[in-house]
Amino acid sequence: MGGLKEELLKSIWHAFTALDLDRSGKVSKSQLKVLSHNLCTVLNVPHDPVALEEHFRDDDEGPVSNQGYMPYLNKFILEKVQGNFDKVEFNRMCWTLCAKKNLSKSPLLISDEDAFKVWVIFNFLSEDKYPLIIVPEEIEYLLKKLTEAMGAGWQQEQFDHYKIALNTSREGLSVWELIDLIGSGQFSKGMDRQTVSMAINEVFNELILDVLKQGYMLKKGHKRKNWTERWFVLKPNIISYYVSEDLKDKKGDIILDANCCVEALPDKDGKKCLFLIKCLDKSFEISASDKKKKQEWIQAIQTTVSLLRAGSPPPHKEARQKRKELRQKLLAEQEEVERQMKELQTANENKQKELETVRKQLEAAAARAAEEEKKRLQTQVELQDRFSLELEREKMVRQKMEEQVAQKSSELEQYLQRVRELEEMYKQLQEALEDEKQARQDEETVRKLQARLLEEESAKRAELEKWHLQQQQTIQMTEAEKQELENQRMIKERALQVAMQQLEQLELERKEALEQYEEVKKKLETAANNTKSWKDKVAHHEGLIRLIEPGSKNPHLITNWGPAAFTEAELEQRQKSWKGKKATSE
Question: Which sequence ranges form a coiled-coil region, renumbered to this chain (predicted)?
């Protein structure tokens, strides 16, 4: 119910923001009453004018107060919606209220009806935040669907230029900017108005009306058993069939659930491309126009039943949810990178502060060392002067002065130790500066990591699009191969039938040849008997009668039974038999 409420709120938001404001900058209560009455009518919710009057009392401050319009809309209208309303009619009412005020006056390549369908599709694809916008990723998805429906090629480079120009100025487009973009023909050049309109209608049917497949097929009646052509429309849980594609005269529904199944049937009753849809209470016999359509419908119904069994939403809604989750994931990753960048920047600033403190300490130490050096030099000069003046006078106290010199040498050793400490502090300062340089390099590395993540995001998107195209090509090739195998099977069946007929014909000819052979054999025996009875006549009347002998062996054979009555092998065999009989008789 939450998803339905969000879809309704988007359309109502367009209608509400299109209402006129009075001088105080508020929407008048009369306009809100008209809007509420229209919403109750199209949503099939009982209208309670008393509750409306009580909600908007005369002493109330209007829609901006605690008694504003949104609490009334949620409590008295949206919470009572049951889903038994016409979504198209509801959207058309909201469109009527906002289109006249916001629709561009410049001429567009699409009709008002097409603009309405684009408006509804925008509400489906837009983000769930107000004011409503559609992000570039969803714009690309919609334009690709329209281009595919028009049968044209997708211009990725052109859209990339448009996307770059769009990202530099804003996050996405409003619905009226989207209508202007599609109506301008920027991404449908070379296409006429009818083609663009058919493409918009096809995408509208798929995304909004949840039409997974539609087309004409023959349906067998349950009572008369006659076949009637119907326009079938497949949705996620139902198949409706109408008299024609205008959807005005609905003839019935086939309710789909997890227990339904579909299977192909052999041709019968003069009908081809048959398949059967089995439900719990009834089965339906359907005849498609050709084998390709039959396979497409079987596959579509099987996919729908599988989604019902898995409890999954329709493919386009599931794809929209995945795209939204992917955008949220990428946004979370980007926010995490930004957080890490801020932490690194904060750490770098703290490091710089520490380095500044060390630098100030080193400067103070160097100043103190310079002052001490100055004092030492001054003391040394004074001692030299005093030694020169009092050298003669202090000969007696040389030992004491040597002790003083030894003391000064000890102080000098301490001073040199101090200088070494300052040099060590200088080295530490150098190391601190190296740490600062390393921190800057780490910051640059993180920036490169962010750039690489963005490139990987683009590569993943391209790879997903490539997988999608490969899947479509694989499906098309599989269907083509199935069709080719079916054609070869039909050709082989016809060749087998012809071969069987030829085999039967050869069997008949063999039988006829066998019968002719028996007849010829009888004739040969009769001729042999006649020849034997003639031998006496030949002996007494030699010269008067000459027996017919086989002729020369050539392609044109002639025997006493007619031209080419026997083969050459048979004639040779008969000639030998005749000569043998003749020799015996002599």
Answer: 316-537
- Residue 278 CB: number of other CB atoms within 10 A? 12
Structure tokens at 472: 């479509």
Residue 328 has pLDDT above 60, yes or no: yes
Terminal alpha carbon distance of the chain: 121
In whole angstroms, give the CA distance from residue 295 to residue 551. 70
In angstroms, what CA-CA distances link 178 with 145, 224, 242, 515? 15, 51, 34, 89
Longest dimension (CA), the chain: 201
DSSP assignment of 54-78 equals HHS-TTS--TTSTT-HHHHHHHHTG
pLDDT at residue 21 tops 80:
no
Contact of 523 with 331, CB cutoff 8 Å: no
Q: Phi, psi (5° rounding) for residue 198?
A: -65, -40
Q: Are 242 and 249 in contact (CB under 8 A)?
A: yes
Distance CA 11, CA 387 (A): 106
Q: What average pLDDT score do residues 59-73 get?
A: 57
Lowest mean pLDDT among 46-60, 110-124, 240-254, 431-445: 46-60
Q: Are 314 and 212 in contact (CB under 8 A)?
A: yes
pLDDT greater at residue 393 or residue 201? 201
- When pLDDT is cut at 50, 70 and 90, the band that residue 545 belongs to is very low
Strand partners, 264: 275
One-letter amino acid for residue 63 of the chain: P
**Half-sphere exposure in the Cβ direction for 48 (13 Å, CA):** 13
Q: Which residues contact 158 (CB under 8 A, 6 or more apart)?
A: 187
Residues ≥6 apart with Cβ < 8 Å to 241: 219, 230, 231, 232, 233, 250, 251, 252, 253, 254
Token pair 């099939």 in the structure block, residue: 44
Q: Would you state the structure tokens that stand for residue 143, as one six-digit string?
A: 């334009």
- The DSSP line for 372-403 is HHHHHHHHHHHHHHHHHHHTTTTSTTHHHHHH
Percentage of the chain lying above the pLDDT 70 cut: 90
Question: Which long-range contacts (C-beta less than 8 Å, at least 24 apart) are formed by 146-150?
Answer: 146/182, 146/187, 146/188, 146/196, 146/199, 146/200, 146/203, 147/187, 147/188, 147/199, 149/198, 149/199, 149/200, 149/202, 149/203, 150/188, 150/191, 150/195, 150/196, 150/198, 150/199
Give Cα 233 to chain centroid, integer Å: 23
Name which residue leads in pLDDT, 394 or 546. 394
pLDDT at 546: 47
* Residue 193 pLDDT > 80: yes
Residue 11, both tokens:
């359309």
Single-letter code of the amino acid located at 2: G
In this structure, the number of other CB atoms found within 10 A of the CB of residue 489 comes to: 10
Q: What is the pLDDT of residue 553?
A: 52
Confidence of residue 565 (pLDDT cuts 50, 70, 90): low
Closest CA relative to residue 258, chosen from 290, 296, 306, 292: 306
In angstroms, the CA 361 to CA 421 distance is: 13
